[in-house]
Amino acid sequence: MSRPAIIVFNVSGVATARRAADAVSGETFGLAGRVDQVDRTFEDSSALVAELFRAGRPIVGVCAAGILVRLVAPLLQDKRAEPPVLAVSDDGALVVPLLGGLVGGDALARSLANALGGTAAITGAGARRFGVILEAPPEGYVLANPDDAKSVTARLLAGERARLEGGAPWIRDSDLPLDAEGRVLLRVDASATAAPAEGLLYRPKVVLAEFNRPDEATLVRLDEALARLEIAPEALALATAPEGAPIHHRFVERLAERGIPLRVVASRIEQGELLHGEPGLRIHRFAEPVSPDAFGRALGRVTVVGLGPGERDWLTPEASAALDRASDLVGYEVYLAMVPERPGQRRHGSDNRVEIERARAALVLAGQGREVAVVSSGDAGIFGMAAAVMEALAAEPARWPNVTVEVAPGVSAMQAAAARLGAPLGHDFAVISLSNLLKPWEIIAKRLEAAARADFVLALYNPTSRSRQPQFEAALDVLRRHRAPETVVALARNVGREGESLTIITLGALDPNDVDMRTLVLVGSSRSRVFARADGRPWMFTPRVYEAAPASETQEPLAL
Fold first, then answer.
1. Ramachandran quadrant class, 90 (left: phi over 0; alpha: psi -120 to 50; beta: rest)
2. Percent of the chain residues past pLDDT 90, beyond the cut
3. Is the pTM for the entire model greater than 0.85?
4. How many structural domains is the chain composed of?
5. Using an 8 Å Cβ cutoff, are 61 and 67 in contact?
6. Which residues belong to any copy of the Tetrapyrrole methylase domain (predicted)?
7. Which of 151, 321, 458, 514 has the most crowded Cβ, counting Cβ within 10 A?
8. Could you tell me which of 328, 337, 507, 490 has the C-alpha nearest to residue 419?
9. Is 317 exposed, middle or buried (0-12, 13-18, 19+ CB in 10 A)?
């Protein structure tokens, strides 16, 4: 289950929200202007709930149930795929699962009620009467015919009795009306049999597939072997691959599509009954459902996460999900501080000038089966940590055969600044870093010269520092050789963070002392323009049609 989101609308519910978040490792969201002491604030409750719901995050509202009902109603489509939604009274006395009982909502309600000293107000008739939800078996079992669960539950509630075939302690120990002569059949069977006409069929996850050749071809042979053995594919609990073996990405993708966990093991599997053996593949069967966590370790993963400029509303759902699932966060300490702390999550901070070492450290952690998020401000693929991770990976590809690497894009500094300013990047533009830490100044000057001559809009990153002031002045000399003094320039500093400032000026009036390392410099093309909004503040834009009139010759410095 994804990290629960605890939403609170009034200060009276903050204490309960924080206790609930602590109990389930959740993240708190508070209505801006009313609530503080939360992880994130929001202004538009409909937009927030829609974002969380579509991201699959359980939603717990410390509020009246009706508020949540109205907020989620337009979003409902598939009860088996949507996250739980719960309402909690502001004193924590009542926890009401509104949606998602089939996907852990009732269990989450009980956990919260225990932590808050309240009551889980579970209203499902089957759950209250029998102590189980037949449509939502516990981990280790899969219901083969879920569409029949509603009618079967209704029959049992109406007084009919059930007959259990096969081992299922969760059914045997429940309050279901069990009878050896019952008409409603509850069958637990891993074999490829059809569901009973008057009952339910549960597949216990008792089969393990041991791959010594983890590729697509061997996966096809697994399907063929299961068919010969007359074992249902749903009975497959996990697949294993040997430590150090190259695992084909298609193999990993196909297992993920089927919802089959993959574990890396150090030695052959000796447990269980060996049903099938051939080069590259062995199939084992166990008497009881097996947990994937009992075997080896999961594949490690490194996700390089673009945090955006700093404003939480600019953090993408994909990036947020990567941060939520991470066991370890790796990054420059300043960027790690932008991520709210989460219980149990380990942080590995370092200096800004050790990118390759940081990337290798992340790969080492992932090689141990950890879920690692490498954080970078803005977009991680633009002058960020994504390239460093790729460099480290390319240098030793054979060292990381069992590590998956992904990149979650973020809102870049130039996108954020452009959005604040209007549309300065509305036509062709070039992005150049003026830092000479990783490339010589001669290359920077050559590229700057070419871009300035070509009349691109320019986004200049890392314009200056205490040790590089003369280089920014040299960059201005290059620009002024090819651009008119009245060319529009925007200085965007700390966009999305405390101390944000935006200033529109001209190239001729630009003073290098007004620029520092936290400033993004946007230099307009000959067609970039500025005009006043209704409130007197300026908009900057570059027309989409290049034949538009050139910039005004009387641009005065303007502060937004």
1. alpha
2. 76
3. no
4. 5
5. yes
6. 301-510
7. 458
8. 490
9. middle
